Give the backbone structure.
Amino acid sequence: MAVASAAQLRWLKIGVFVLACYPLLRLIFLGVTDGLGTNPIEFITRSSGTWTLVGLMLTLTVTPLRQLSGWNSLLRVRRMLGLFSFFYACLHFITYIWLDQFFDFAAIIKDVYKRPFITVGFSAFVLLIPLALTSSNNMIRRLGARRWQLLHRLVYVIAILGVLHYAWLVKKDLTQPLIYAAVLTVLLGWRVLHRRR
């Protein structure tokens, strides 16, 4: 397996960090320049949701890429990608309960009842929390590698729920949700095939 030098790894992490910050910086820029369109809340909700899914897909892509390239150092940025996914999921969730519903929990419960795709998205968000909380090296040691791996396999369920949440939301033009579903199918299929070898 190829191993990156300390300098290469540092630049890789910096590059991933900058790219992962881009959606947030774009939202801030559009916000201060009045570029969020006629419905800024919907824009932020959709953008943060999209980048949550993109982050999840990129996180799941790391292992196949490492196996194909032999570049073990890619694993060093997987945690960062996963945590950025959680960050954008938090932004997505906060936008909904704060800017969209303004902490009106009765309205939120009613909304969940009327629109089950919110329940699916909320379930994915809740499942992401233990993964984010146990992402540190210290938590891996405390849980033990086996239990930590079992817990973090929840990311597969979360990604499926995320794609379902998106597909249920858009209803008519399913092009983008189907693209995510196809990518996810390839990524999960790769893992199944790799385990059978």
Observations:
- The chain has a mean pLDDT of 92.
- The longest helix spans residues 40-69.
- Residues 114 and 166 are 16 Å apart (CA to CA).
